[in-house]
Design a protein that fits this description.
Helices cover about 35% and strands about 25% of the residues. With about 550 residues, it is an alpha/beta fold. It binds 1-O-phosphono-alpha-D-glucopyranose and zinc ion (ZN). Zinc ion binds next to loops.
């Protein structure tokens, strides 16, 4: 064991989901080691600790896994469970932590950010419930990282983690496990695989785009092998360190091949994609896009058709910028709906306390109490189970939902890599106007409230401030401004816009058209173009 003197890096503060930086930043001498030491210090693990370690296979994953194992051993961890070749999807890692009663896990991923030598890398710590470390833990990690003077590492050759088996590293036992088996078994307990198999055998056609990211092997095993979908159903199934040069973010912009196929002449009945680390999902029907906010509401409204949720839901949670569609389902079901800040870490307490069963974010994230992360393939299987039970098209399921609950038109506009100072100034400019907004008319609608969202966690009483600027209208419409906490270059401004339309005769508009007055009002209010030099978003969802 070696104790290596070091000095802190000043930028090691975890964001929405761990620490994400360009690969080159992580390749600086001591950079990764410092942050791992900060995690291990903050985690304060017991002497017989078990740690799960894995990542999405992106560039630098292989090297980083070995460093983490050597440091875990040197810091007294007794048992490490590692995915074969260092691979674990984020939901599979969360499940493994829970299944094996580990004390925590270190997950290597920058989620949907591009990979490769010039792409992004990331690392985050999950706690014993399988979920991302809550803010009180990430704050300690940041503090430790800022004051570190040394780290501990075991001097050892790289372990052969390409095969399932057990190794010894100093005082630590390293168990290399198949990354898919336990996760696939969990899915079989939640969904009616028999009914989905029948659906897939009935001429129903689907496509799953793994975007050369981590879900390829999971989707092949579950969809093609266990559920009998024809070989080739899963495309871009081979995980690649640079995701084949793509941007592994399942949205209308970056999953364009899938979108083209689903909007093409011979479109399959169902299309889905997942992101770099397997926690996001995009769901499409033939020539039909399901907005993630609607998806959460529809899963909730149909949950009792799915074996794992047949007993009903305890409650639903959604992040603040996610549309209010789920709130309407919760009201109809007579269950609670919680509004939390952006990021999965805020759902953990509610799930642990049994207050909610389903959670979702507008950013293509949906999940439940089966793990403590959002889960891309789980959402795909949930949809397949609903379609198998209802034998209706995706479009019909969504339209019937709107008829019953009304439609929440929704869009998110992302402006990526904006000058960071200009972005912060823009947020301040909106904030300064907020106090005067209630009672005034914007976009032909009356502003009811305007604030900077704060969240009081009902379980542990902690408060999180500055979680996004909200302008809420009398009609139920909302405009939200927020700065991303996951970007690695400049600042990303997110503008979220929503309106509510109860009348089925008006459910056929394009969301951009329906929301245009609110989008224009938001642009004018924030003086957007003049302040950022941007006239159009990088990504529209
Ligand atoms: C983004 C999403 C957020 C999600 C996070 C991690 O964070 O908006 O909903 O939880 O990625 O996948 P942001 O960049 O907005 O801070
Ligand atoms: Zn992700």
């Amino acid at each position: 064991m070696r104790v290596v003197p070091t000095t802190p890096f000043l930028d090691q503060r975890p964001g929405t989901s761990g620490l994400r930086k360009r690969v080159g930043v992580f390749q600086q001498p001591h950079y990764l080691e410092n942050f791992v030491q900060a995690i291990l210090d903050a985690a304060a693990l017991p002497s017989d600790a078990t740690l799960v370690v894995g990542g999405d296979g992106r560039y630098h994953n292989r090297e980083a896994i070995q460093v983490i194992l050597q440091m875990a051993a040197a810091n007294g961890v007794r048992h490490a469970i590692v995915g074969q070749n260092g691979i674990l999807s984020t939901p599979a890692a969360s499940h493994l932590i829970r299944l094996r009663k580990a004390n925590g896990g270190i997950i290597l991923s920058a989620s949907h950010n591009p990979g490769g030598p010039d792409g992004d890398f990331g690392i985050k710590y999950n706690v014993a419930n399988g979920g991302p470390a809550p803010e009180n833990v990430t704050a300690v990690i940041a503090e430790r990282a800022a004051s570190l003077t040394e780290y501990r590492i075991e001097d050892s050759a790289d372990l052969p983690i390409g095969d399932v088996g057990t190794h010894q590293l100093g005082g630590m036992r390293v168990e290399v496990v198949d990354p898919v088996t336990d996760y696939a078994a969990l899915m079989e307990t939640l969904f009616d695989f028999g009914a989905i198999r029948q659906l897939l055998a009935s001429g129903f056609r689907m496509r799953f785009d793994a975007m050369h990211a981590v879900t390829g092997p999971y989707a092949r095993e579950i969809l093609e092998r266990r559920l009998g979908a024809p070989a080739g159903t899963v495309v871009r199934a081979e995980p690649l360190p640079d995701f084949g040069g793509g941007h592994p973010d399942p949205n209308l912009t970056y999953a364009h091949d899938l979108v083209e196929e689903m909007f093409g002449a011979n479109a399959p009945d169902f299309g889905a994609a997942s992101d770099g680390d397997g926690d996001r999902n995009m769901v499409l029907g033939a020539r039909f896009f399901v907005s993630p906010s609607d998806s959460l509401a529809i899963l909730a409204a149909n949950a009792t058709r799915v074996p794992g949720y047949a007993a009903g839901l305890a409650g639903i949670a959604r992040s603040m910028p996610t549309s209010g569609a789920a709130d309407r389902v919760a009201a109809a079901l007579g269950i609670a709906c919680f509004e939390t800040p952006t990021g999965w870490k805020f759902f953990g307490n509610l799930l642990d306390a049994g207050r909610v069963t389903l959670c979702g974010e507008e950013s293509f994230g949906t999940g439940s109490n089966h793990v403590r992360e959002k889960d891309g393939l789980w959402a795909v299987l949930f949809w397949l189970n609903i379609l198998a039970a209802r034998r209706e098209s995706v479009e019909l399921v969504v339209r019937e939902h709107w008829q019953r609950f009304g439609r929440n038109y929704y869009t998110r506009h992302d402006y990526e890599e904006v000058d960071a100072i200009a972005a912060r100034a823009l947020i301040e400019h909106v904030r300064e106007q907020q106090a005067a907004l209630p009672g005034t008319t914007l976009a032909g609608d009356i502003v009811q409230t305007a604030d900077d969202f704060s969240y009081l966690d009902p379980i542990d009483g902690s408060v999180s401030h500055h979680q996004g600027l909200r302008i809420v209208f009398a009609s139920g419409a909302r405009i939200i401004f927020r700065l991303s906490g996951t970007g690695t270059a400049g600042a990303t401004i997110r503008l979220y816009v929503e309106s509510y339309e109860p009348d089925p005769a008006r459910h056929d508009l394009d969301a951009q058209v329906a929301l245009a007055p609110y989008i224009e009002a938001a642009m004018a209010l924030s003086d957007f173009v003049a302040r950022t030099g941007r006239t159009s978003p990088t990504v529209i969802t």
